[in-house]
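residues and backbone:
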Amino acid sequence: MYCCRPETSKRWLLSVLLLSTVLIFGGLPTSAVWAVPDKIYLARALYLAEKGRYLEAKEIWDQFAEAGDAGAQLYLGGLYEQGKGVQRDPVQAFAWYKKSADQGNRIAQLKLAEMYLSGNGTEQDYEQAFRWNKRAAEAGLPAALNSLGNLYLDGLGTEKDVEKAVEYFREASNRDDLSGMFNLGYSYENGVGVSQDTEAAIRLYRSAALQGSMPATVNLGRMYESGDLVPTDYAKAREWYEKASEQNYAVGQLNLALLILQGLGGEKNPREAARLMRLAADQGNARAQTELAHLYVIGEGVESDSGRALELFHLAAEQGYAEAIYSIGRLYKDGRGVAQDAQKAIAYFNRAADLDYSEAYLQLARMYYFGKGIDADRDRALSHFQRAASEGIADAQFAVGVFYFNGEKVAQDKATAAKWYRSAADQGHELAQFTLGTMYLAGEGVEKDGLKGVAWIGIAAAQGLDRAIDAQGKIWPKLSNADKAKVEFVIETCRGKQFRDC
């Protein structure tokens, strides 16, 4: 599942066309009161912009902007920032926003704050971003109230103050700013700056969603999907994701696709899942590009095509998406869609590892351990196994256990080995479960306990591990009926937990 975090206000602030309604009909201040003919000219400019005739609109705005009209200056800033009818020029955009902001235009003040915050068109300056954002907020602009909350939340240009951030989110929400409503809901959901209140979070998300907030729509779906704070309800999750998907919202399309792929909350349909992923991927969503690439690798919902998978992985990798970078390494390691190349595989695994992608450490460890395509290096292998194990990767935890059990590259320590095996076993790793069972039977690294040993071996056997099945077959006839009942109870309880945390 893919979810949404605190956001800035809707990027309608970037849109010349949507700004028109606010400025002309919303009563926002300009440098002077327009005369009726002036209003007609400016309305004409807005009409031209709506039709995509930006150069003609610019001619009108140029005249008014040079005469000192703050609204026209704001519009020119928007044209230069977006490159509409003119070459994109953030420096020019900043200059026009500054002229408008200096006259008190609160939207221009917020735009100026955004440019200082991002370093777009000017040198990045968090203190100036905070200063201009605060001026716009004090003028009552709902979007600025929300943005000011984000600055307090992150401690940018001011001291971090999550309680004050929530105050501004609340004020923005009370003025019907959808991003403020969303952020307040997020605060209640996660207990950030307020006591956790699931009902309040859902109420705010729902209110924002019904007014068109796609992040809120997705977060409602995510809450019902995860079941962390409300009972899991895949059908409801699917409904909310469908609403977001219908609005061509990439995250909604992806999350819906993942449910459909698994058949959760409705019919399983890999082909439809692939179609939705493609829609999200075409919008540049790196996670969707990666998930779709995986489908091309295995041929689920699409024809198997490693070449197409590689293209999609590269698109996501160019955005710095760690899983995609790792997956390219896997293709080079296995020679799927590309010539097998251990050095390229290692290069991609290292890139993914630099982004803290745990599975990359595991792959590096295996390559160095077995020396496939490279010189074996057990010291380096152990280091990578340990890093992956610390990140909770079960295969790596089992491998570290083997190092300690055998005393390879470390002092032999069977008790430590048992701890690592247990960590892997608790994640359902059948070989770790079996090995732990044999250690209990022999009393190696743990206190000898025959029933625990048989139980762990039985758990591994229930998952289909051949050596565990063979061992269980030899041990089982030797048990009393009472002991068999105890072991069967443990195994069935573990089965109910999907063989995890047994």
About this structure: Confidence is low (pLDDT under 50) at residues 9-34. The longest helix spans residues 481-496. The radius of gyration is 30 Å.
